[in-house]
Amino acid sequence: MTWTPADLPDLTGTTAVVTGANSGIGLHAARELAAHGADVVLACRKADAGRATASAIGGRFEQLDLASLDSVAAFAEHWEGPLDLLVNNAGLMTPPAWRATADGHELQFGTNHLGHFALTGRLLPHLLAAPAPRVVTVSSLAHVYGRDSVVDGNPEASYEPMVAYGNSKLANLLFAFELQRRADRAGRTLVSNAAHPGVAATGLATDPDGVGARRFFKAVPTPVVELGLRVLLQSAEAGAAPTLYAAAVAGPATYSGPQHFRRGPRRFRGWRGPAGPAALHPRARDEQLAERLWERSEELTGVAFDLGG
User: Which sequence ranges are marked TM in the entry (predicted)?
Assistant: First the structure.
């Protein structure tokens, strides 16, 4: 039986935060959660787009720039009450040249991983106050490009856009699975898992902070790029299904994604299809690498996780 977002349970009485929810995967995930009764907070960097989207789907907007640890701290400081679901979704992809966050970290590593690491850690008391909290971290097929050097944080001297992106997405997985191991050791009921959207037509390709900064995408009109993506790739709505599956169905320390075409070429495996268990590079299950990355992330963010136990 194929799972779809229509199978989400009644979420009345639950509270969810979705980062980067003003467009793409985050928007569709937030919309479905709200449609099923959840009180959804759209945590976005772009205030105007975030407010408009929140109003359209019946959610709430809160300012959050994951490339700034001060912004992350401010968001968490103003949070009140239990938090049932945190969806670490926001991110950017392959800026052609090395760029730094407000705190001096490489932009992809700092935004995609460190920002979400710090956000989860600062919101942890509120998550643990919920009866059955979940943290879903959105990774990518590109995690296979990640290397053991992920702990170095993508230094400028060796910057390669796709490797740096792959490292940030590998970091997402190492973090998600290590969080589950630590929660288990502490006897907590928290579920931490991960998902990827396959290859979906989202704003990543036109984002001026990422792929959109490349010469080709700057030369081609944005409507033409967006039309081509819609023709070639699955929709952002379809790409959000694995995130929702992870938020409602998938177990702890699992990885969800689109199921490949049973009769299609192997090179398209995981690109699209209904949500379910996804293939994972063995490096993502490396517990020693995860431990090293966790310790390094604590050093870089100044955020420690208190799971008790």
Answer: none
